[in-house]
Specification:
About 45% of the residues lie in helices and about 15% in strands. The chain contains nine helices and nine strands. The structure holds NADPH dihydro-nicotinamide-adenine-dinucleotide phosphate (NDP) and 2-hydroxyethylsulfonic acid.
Length: about 260
């Protein structure tokens, strides 16, 4: 069953990891794509790859979700905003793992600006059109860090707690419409996430995934497609997905 055929999805952070894997998975379902992120070369490469394999429409443009003016200008373009059936609020990052009294203020601001404010800026532009059309599906990338904090997780965990709260709020504020809102809360997924968190320190990043099989970006994309493809009367509001080796942020079995 493919309920997604010919729909259009806007993905933030489509240049890597979960966003990129979901773009590929949705292309396979015949979904037209609006792919965004800051790295233009990666967007171009992905568009080329997808167009050579799938008969869909793809629009790409660079977008920094922390820049409210840019978000407003680029997403407000009428041909873009009127056609969005699916919004994947995926762009996000962790920066650093310092204790609360040692944290880098620029890192804190980067996480708050991207994970909370960026998600809000995009949603504020897209949701009014979904309401006008009385249809749509918003998927927000939360995390197990949005349920439970862990040492050094402080501000990142706070931003993901905020994402969970905003997702719940979206569902409440959109009651009476056909717009569905889903939060995905993954455990460890091997992407560029840890390289970004440790500011490019490969050794530290690789250690995060040592001794067990982490989730892959494709595992999350599969879940996202399942949630989006559910019949219109089914709203999967919250989905937590973990590697089998991990049961919560602290409880992780390494060989
Ligand atoms: P990646 O680092 O692989 O991908 C992050 C994506 O976000 C990139 O495409 C990046 O694109 C984009 N991005 C970052 N900052 C901005 C910005 N200011 N404006 C626009 N795009 C931005 O990590 P993941 O795929 O793992 O992360 C995706 C989401 O999943 C994040 O919200 C993360 O918090 C969440 N998550 C990840 C988990 C994990 O273990 N990996 C677990 C739970 C949740 P570009 O740099 O080109 O702008
Ligand atoms: C990413 C998962 O546990 O590193 O959100 O915070 S974790």
């Amino acid at each position: 069953m493919n309920n997604l055929q010919n729909k259009t999805a806007l993905i933030t952070g489509a240049t890597s990891g979960i966003g990129k894997a979901t773009a590929i998975a949705l292309a396979k379902m015949n979904v037209n794509l609006i792919l965004t992120g800051r790295r233009k070369d990666r967007l171009k490469e992905l568009k080329k790859e997808l167009l050579s394999n799938y008969d869909i429409k793809i629009n790409i443009f660079t977008l920094d979700v922390t820049n409210q003016e840019e978000v407003q200008k680029k997403i407000s373009h009428s041909t873009i905003k009127q056609n969005i059936d699916i919004l994947l609020n995926n762009a996000g990052l962790a920066l650093g793992m310092g204790k609360i009294d040692e944290g880098d203020i620029a890192d804190w601001e980067g996480m708050i600006d991207t994970n909370i404010k960026g998600l809000l800026y995009i949603s504020r532009v897209v949701i009014p059109h979904m309401r006008e059309n009385n249809k749509g599906h918003i998927i927000n990338l939360g995390s197990i860090a949005g349920e439970m904090t862990y040492p050094g997780g402080n501000v990142y965990c706070a931003t993901k707690h905020a994402v969970h709260a905003l997702s719940e709020s979206m569902n409440i504020d959109l009651v009476g419409t056909n717009i569905r809102v889903s939060t995905i809360a993954p455990g460890a997924v091997e992407t560029e996430f840890s390289n970004v968190r440790f500011h490019g320190d490969e050794q530290k990043a690789n250690k995060v995934y040592e001794g067990y099989t982490p989730l892959s970006a494709d595992d999350i994309a599969d879940l996202i497609v399942y949630i989006l493809n559910a019949p219109d009367h089914v709203n999967i509001q919250y989905a937590k997905i973990m590697p089998t080796a991990q049961r919560n942020p602290y409880t992780l079995h390494r060989d």
